[in-house]
């Protein structure tokens, strides 16, 4: 089993920045990819960004150039630096981890961007 704990959410003005963190614990040696998803009220959960253990990154089009995903493999932690935030970025942000034959989710951290 893998446990994921997110932190770093909060309220920020449009144009501001936040940095989300996700710490993984448990059987982390099986994890080959970690990422972030988000879900706004009344909408489906959507992919934001991911990073493989080798450092390869993938971003959704709506965050390219504004968000940066990074990881510290020694700490089993993944980060999401969010810059130039927009009101439409308001959502609950979830950390995900893919391990062989399993996928895990955190509880989520709320990000609210005020206009």
Report what the structure shows.
With 115 residues, the protein is mainly beta. It has strands at residues 2-7, 10-13, 18-26, 31-39, 46-52, 57-59, 67-72, 77-82, 91-99, 102-105, 109-114. The chain has no helices and eleven strands. Strand 7 (67-72) and strand 8 form a beta hairpin. The termini are far apart.
Can you lay out the helices and strands and say which pair or pack?
Layout: E1 2-7, E2 10-13, E3 18-26, E4 31-39, E5 46-52, E6 57-59, E7 67-72, E8 77-82, E9 91-99, E10 102-105, E11 109-114
Parallel strand pairs: 2-11
Antiparallel strand pairs: 1-3, 3-8, 4-5, 4-9, 5-6, 7-8, 9-10, 9-11
Any descriptors?
4-stranded antiparallel sheet; single chain; 7-stranded mixed sheet; 115 residues; mainly beta; 11 strands
Q: Termini, distance in Å?
A: 40 Å
Which geometry do the CA atoms define? Answer: globular
Q: In terms of quaternary structure, what is this?
A: single chain
Could you spell the SSE succession in H and E letters?
EEEEEEEEEEE
Portion in helices: under 10%
- Coarse structural class: mainly beta
Please report the total strand number as a whole number: 11
The radius of gyration over CA amounts to: 13 Å
Beta-strand content: over 45%
Task: List segments where confidence is low: pLDDT < 50 over at least 5 consecutive residues.
Answer: none
Largest sheet composition: 7 strands, mixed
Number of helices: 0
Mean pLDDT, to the nearest integer, reads 96
């Amino acid at each position: 089993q893998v446990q994921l704990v997110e932190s770093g959410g909060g309220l920020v003005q449009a144009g501001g920045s936040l940095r989300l963190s996700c710490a993984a614990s448990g059987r982390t040696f099986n994890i080959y990819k970690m990422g972030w998803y988000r879900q706004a009220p009344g909408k489906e959960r959507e992919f934001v960004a991911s990073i493989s253990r080798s450092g390869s990154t993938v971003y959704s089009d709506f965050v390219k150039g504004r968000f940066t995903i990074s990881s510290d493999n020694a700490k089993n932690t993944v980060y999401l630096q969010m810059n130039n935030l927009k009101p439409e970025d308001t959502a609950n942000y979830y950390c995900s981890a893919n391990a062989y034959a399993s996928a895990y989710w955190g509880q989520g951290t709320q990000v609210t961007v005020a206009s």
